[in-house]
Design a protein that fits this description.
This protein is of the alpha/beta class. It is 46% helix and 10% strand. It has 13 helices and eight strands. A five-stranded parallel beta sheet has the order 4-5-6-7-8. It has a three-stranded parallel beta sheet with strand order 1-2-3. Strand 4, helix 6 and strand 5 form a beta-alpha-beta unit. The longest helix has 37 residues.
């Protein structure tokens, strides 16, 4: 009798899983069809007017010369974004077209390696960003840029940006001259962020030169396709492994691009930690830090099944909507959410409710 009941339960669950997978694949096919230019239909909307807050959007000061992209990006593939990075009059209609209520913006790729120049340059950038936000009331919010090459000055600039400019969050761009934010020299930034209640968004950048040997002969693996994910995921794991969240348990780390692969490796991370040599003993499992101290965003391109997995691993409350504008078109980012078989209630959480709570918008 127990065996027959077990089989019935198994078959029922298998049937539900098959239906769910079928729905996901069907939606994925439709999504890919639309993104390949085969459909002119507008993104399918949740019922009613949806408020959308995009939380990883970029801008670049207009300096009179073309922006310099990282060496891993082919400039020929970026010509369409150049007019959009610095022109806010152009981006507003694009936001309207896809119902983007607010963009949370950050200056793209800001890392000033020269310590003597960093503080003044970053202050000027933050002040300019505050002016932009003030020029378009209610449409933009900002991440504080930090002179991370000088951690104490970075902590002070974070406090200035929060208390004087109204930024309630910060974005940092990868490692600093080959050093990662798990190192104790950077802990003043974590301490100040926790004290101010400010989440830190860890944005990908090229790995340090000494870490690129594994990509020799394969430039297609450099940049957003793979190396950025590897380096950012490794960076986040270093932060966990160093005990940063044990010392500063109230800090929040934000990872874009569906969590830079971490939500899908939680069991493997815990298994590996149990087996590994350790220089320190953490208070929790790696998976617990990922689910308690990290939130993720939908920035970049992904597929609906990826979002389903992320929600299952992290919980719907820890997923925020992002576009990665202007590198991704807002209409495509909305289409990705609308093509995912989740409830309208969950879409509302991803689109704006989670951001309102976690980013104090």
């Amino acid at each position: 009798m127990e065996e027959r009941i077990g089989r019935r339960v198994f078959l029922r669950k298998a049937g539900v899983a098959a239906l769910t997978l079928s729905a996901i694949l069907h939606r994925t096919s439709e999504n890919n069809h639309a993104m390949n230019g085969s459909s002119t239909d507008a993104p399918r909307e949740s019922k009613g007017k949806t408020r959308r807050i995009a939380v990883e959007e970029h801008w670049m000061p207009q300096t009179g010369k073309p922006p310099e992209f990282t060496p891993s990006i082919n400039p020929a593939e970026m010509s369409h974004v150049l007019p959009l990075l610095g022109n806010f009059e152009l981006r507003l209609p694009v936001m309207e077209e896809s119902g983007i209520t607010i963009q949370v913006i950050a200056p793209v790729g800001i890392r000033v390696p020269d310590r003597s120049m960093a503080v003044a340059i970053i202050k000027r950038i933050n002040d300019t960003q505050a002016e932009i936000i003030g020029k378009y009331p209610g449409r933009f919010a900002g991440y504080a840029a930090l002179p991370t090459v000088d951690p104490k000055a970075a902590a002070d600039e974070l406090e200035r940006a929060v208390t004087q400019l109204g930024f309630k969050r910060t974005m940092v761009f990868g490692q600093v001259n080959g050093e990662y934010f798990d190192e104790q020299k950077f802990w003043p930034i974590w301490e100040r962020a926790e004290g101010l209640g400010v989440p830190i968004y860890l944005h990908p950048m090229d790995p340090p030169s000494w870490a690129t040997k594994m990509y020799e002969g394969h430039p297609e693996l450099l940049g957003p396709g793979w190396s950025w994910t590897v380096d950012t995921a490794n960076h986040a794991l270093r932060i966990i492994g160093a005990g940063v969240f044990d010392v500063f348990p109230k800090t929040t780390l934000i990872l874009g691009h569906m969590g830079e692969s971490l939500p899908y490796l939680l069991g493997r991370l815990d298994e590996g930690y149990r087996m590994a040599f350790k220089t320190r003993k953490l208070k929790k499992l790696f998976s617990e830090y990922v689910k308690e101290n990290i939130v993720i965003t939908t920035s970049g391109r992904y597929r609906p099944e990826t979002l389903i997995c992320a929600i299952s691993a992290m919980g719907i409350e820890r997923v925020l909507f992002a576009v990665d504008y202007p590198f991704v078109a807002p209409k495509d980012a909305v289409q990705q959410i609308e093509s995912t078989p989740i409830s309208d209630t969950d879409k509302e959480k991803i689109y704006h409710l989670n951001a309102e709570r976690r980013l104090k918008l």
